[in-house]
Design a protein that fits this description.
Shape: elongated
Number of strands: 7
Order of helices and strands: HHHEEEEHHHHHHEEHEHHH
Structural class: alpha/beta
Length: 271
């Protein structure tokens, strides 16, 4: 991987100085968004804290398999956790994804055909913003209306054009990319707008970020979507290591054999 070698070179040449190496690598990659994630993967961390997988690896998963919110990330993407291996019970703190305000409202609106103003979460949000509070990712009534319009537009685009990942959009012409500006809300679309997950000790996919698109993918019953892995539980990483070091698949314990179809193991099984 050419980009990875560039990062290693600059990181070593600057003696691990993050600010210096970051600046040099940024100049090299210009607006290529992957430099951020690669630099941070090689920041001052012990090897025990980092997983062995390509930090930019795309997994293709059934969106219905992402049922709970990660207890490690709290439903918010954190680039500093990319490549992290973490022990503990964070993967046991299971809050249902559908219980989050945005996914719940999206299911109510599109699956059960309720008008936005008839959904309890939106009714409460209207009261909150009128009282000067933030609700449903909005500070004012106008922002709330625009948020609902944004969801309608995003749903329409995905329904009509299919689920398009950040990596695929980056291959489009500048004219085509402009078409998606209003969908993503960013000047430059990149991989980090894909759904992000953490992986628990038993391989469970736990939601981290991109709730709008994940909820819409579930409502539309899309079979596979691309996701970016943020962190892995230590026990899952140990399983990956055991699999990678096995001389033969026949030598593996049954507990690992039953996981061989897991999307996060394909890079090892097919190697």
């Amino acid at each position: 991987m050419k980009e990875l070698q560039v990062v290693k070179k600059y990181y070593i040449n600057t003696k691990g100085n993050i600010r210096t190496s970051f600046s040099k690598i940024k100049d090299y990659f210009f607006h290529r968004p992957l430099y951020i994630i690669l630099v941070l993967t090689y920041r001052l961390k012990s090897k025990a804290q980092l997983h062995d997988a390509d930090p930019l690896k795309t997994l293709y998963v059934n969106p219905h398999d992402i049922k709970y919110v990660s207890g490690l990330s709290g439903g918010s993407f954190n680039i500093h956790k990319i490549g992290l291996v973490k022990d503990g019970n964070w993967d046991q703190k299971k809050k249902p994804f559908i219980n989050l305000d945005v996914p719940h409202a999206i299911h109510e609106h599109f699956k059960y055909r309720k008008k936005w103003e008839d959904i309890d979460i939106i009714k409460d949000a209207i009261k909150q913003v009128k009282n000067g509070n933030r609700a449903f990712k909005s500070n004012t009534l106008n922002e709330l209306i625009k948020h609902c319009e944004y969801i309608d537009y995003l749903y329409s685009e995905i329904s009509s054009n299919g689920y398009i990942s950040g990596k695929d959009i980056n291959k489009f012409s500048s004219f085509e990319r402009k078409k998606f500006k209003s969908i993503i809300g960013n000047k430059f679309y990149n991989r980090y707008n894909d759904v992000a997950v953490d992986i628990g000790r038993n391989g469970e996919l736990l939601f981290v970020d991109c709730r709008h698109r994940l909820a819409i993918a579930q409502v539309l019953d899309i079979k596979k979507i691309p996701v970016l892995v943020q962190a892995r539980h230590k026990e899952w990483q140990d399983l990956r290591k055991t699999l990678a070091e096995a001389g033969s698949l026949d030598d593996l314990p049954e507990s690992i054999k039953i996981q061989l179809e897991h999307p996060d193991l394909k890079d090892i099984v097919e190697d």
